[in-house]
Amino acid sequence: MAVGLASLMLMNCSFVRLSNQMNLEAAVETAAAFLNKSVKPVLVGGPKMRVAKACEAFVELADACGYPVAVMPSAKGLVPEHHSRFIGTYWGAVSTPFCAEIVESADAYLFAGPIFNDYSSVGYSLLLKKEKAIIVQPDRVVIGNGPAFGCVLMKDFLHALATRLKKNTAAYDNYSRIFVPQGEPLSSEPGEPLRVNILFKHIQKMLSGSSAVIAETGDSWFNCQKLKLPEGCGYEFQMQYGSIGWSVGATLGYAQAAKDKRVISFIGDGS
Ligand SMILES: *[C@@H]1O[C@H](CO)[C@@H](O)[C@H](O)[C@H]1NC(C)=O
Ligand SMILES: *[C@@H]1O[C@H](CO)[C@@H](O)[C@H](O)[C@H]1NC(C)=O
């Protein structure tokens, strides 16, 4: 006997890759109420947006809601850095300047596809509160300390939420008030040994939409994280384990798959 779609959905929503419409509607309505009543909400993109194929829906939401947009370090490359309200990488104490201040002082934040491990949470030191958070995973949404909605696909949720929020630029306005641009690294004197800060100044100028950056564990993580990615520039780095070596295979694989890109690997842990 054939198994009907409805019973398959009850068994496993991620298998059929469809949202349960009732759960989706309930999740969107509850999230909209939660975010609408907040004073200075923020959006943060996480690495699972990739498997959830939700990067476009995230941008739709970012465009519509007026909130500042930050990215988790392991999601760099999945959130457009040329977005008018992009505020950088949220990485606790090692965030882009002024980014953590805005995220951690918000009274509501939506994290799309986060992975909070020892690396991304800087040894579990993030000053986030669960009751202020909406956590959107590839097929599940949790709002504050509850409720949780299963069988809701991230891309459907973000897409629907984009049409249901009150526009609120308070947190971005705050950011604009406190933001001070970083100084330019000095130029090196003739004959002076090349320094990393000067090297990266030149690398920044080399990047374009047809480049891709692969960052190895260690110093390269931190230096590459500070690069401002032009539209279309690829970016890969992994935060699941800290051993070096990953980037060599990643570079070969990436270069095979993205033949139109100039792939630039950064290897070296600064020792
Ligand atoms: C949120 O605000 C928008 C825009 O004002 C409104 O259309 C929507 O009904 C509100 N939703 C909730 C649940 O408060
Ligand atoms: C941030 O925004 C809130 C709400 O608009 C306001 O009360 C607060 O003073 C602002 N903080 C800064 C640093 O501008």
UniProtKB/TrEMBL annotation:
<dbReference type="GO" id="GO:0000949">
    <property type="term" value="P:aromatic amino acid family catabolic process to alcohol via Ehrlich pathway"/>
</dbReference>
<comment type="subunit">
    <text>Homotetramer.</text>
</comment>
<dbReference type="GO" id="GO:0004737">
    <property type="term" value="F:pyruvate decarboxylase activity"/>
</dbReference>
<keyword id="KW-0786">Thiamine pyrophosphate</keyword>
<comment type="similarity">
    <text>Belongs to the TPP enzyme family.</text>
</comment>
<feature type="domain" description="Thiamine pyrophosphate enzyme central">
    <location>
        <begin position="28"/>
        <end position="146"/>
    </location>
</feature>
<dbReference type="GO" id="GO:0005829">
    <property type="term" value="C:cytosol"/>
</dbReference>
<dbReference type="GO" id="GO:0000287">
    <property type="term" value="F:magnesium ion binding"/>
</dbReference>
<keyword id="KW-0456">Lyase</keyword>
<keyword id="KW-0479">Metal-binding</keyword>
<keyword id="KW-0460">Magnesium</keyword>
<dbReference type="GO" id="GO:0030976">
    <property type="term" value="F:thiamine pyrophosphate binding"/>
</dbReference>
<feature type="signal peptide">
    <location>
        <begin position="1"/>
        <end position="21"/>
    </location>
</feature>
<dbReference type="Pfam" id="PF00205">
    <property type="entry name" value="TPP_enzyme_M"/>
</dbReference>
<dbReference type="InterPro" id="IPR029035">
    <property type="entry name" value="DHS-like_NAD/FAD-binding_dom"/>
</dbReference>
<dbReference type="InterPro" id="IPR029061">
    <property type="entry name" value="THDP-binding"/>
</dbReference>
<dbReference type="InterPro" id="IPR012110">
    <property type="entry name" value="PDC/IPDC-like"/>
</dbReference>
<dbReference type="InterPro" id="IPR012000">
    <property type="entry name" value="Thiamin_PyroP_enz_cen_dom"/>
</dbReference>
<protein>
    <recommendedName>
        <fullName>pyruvate decarboxylase</fullName>
        <ecNumber>4.1.1.1</ecNumber>
    </recommendedName>
</protein>
<keyword id="KW-0210">Decarboxylase</keyword>
<keyword id="KW-0732">Signal</keyword>
